[in-house]
């Protein structure tokens, strides 16, 4: 809240299974949370209620990160509640198959604007606050190991994530030394329980991972804890994939 010196985190995309779990974990670590949601009001409200059990002065707002005006409005709302920003977690994402030869302009715009354009303007808005603070703050983008893989049915998505990883390095150079900017690139973490072949797919994916298991929120939080405490790491892409990229 205004006038207090608690650590504050802004997080986009906190209503998915992984996102909401990360947001809750940050609240449990003492961060007042300000998170955005796009199209899942019930999930957002549930996430907020869980977070407020630990940090009652947390807030949320609706935001379409593919729209610059919506991002600006979200940060205006943030400023109504808080006067500092310690951690910006750029997590909002859109993901679905788009086979080459069948990609529509609407699909391209949605995937690129949500995953890349949204990341840029979210970071730019956050940086406008963070670079003027008298303490070191941090930006962490959540990308994907797919940025380094060739998935023929996900070209717009993987290209956008690769671009965001490069963007992470640009912001790290521009904002140093006041703001540390890094990226966490998860591998396979969750399987949609609604998929008919979810169990079979899960076992198939495990066979591709040298450590033989899917990732968990604990794995992400271990890296995030490191990045929020370390003072000499910036511009890095940290893969959290159980060794998947080795195969």
Could you say what the CATH architecture is? Answer: 3-Layer(aba) Sandwich
Order of helices and strands: EHEHEHEHEHEHHE
Spatial separation of the terminal alpha carbons: 47 Å
What is the tally of beta strands? 7
What is the helix fraction of residues, given as a range? 40-55%
CATH top-level class: Alpha Beta
Structural class by sheet pairing and helices: alpha/beta
* Count of distinct structural domains: 1
Inertia-based shape: globular
Number of helical segments with 4 or more residues: 7
Q: Please list the strands of the largest sheet in the order they lie side by side.
A: 3-2-1-4-5-6-7
Largest sheet: 7 strands, parallel
At the fourth level of CATH, the homologous superfamily is NAD(P)-binding Rossmann-like Domain
Q: Give the strand content.
A: 5-15%
Q: Briefly note the CATH topology name.
A: Rossmann fold
Computed over alpha carbons, the radius of gyration is: 18 Å
**Unreliable spans:** none
Mean pLDDT: 95
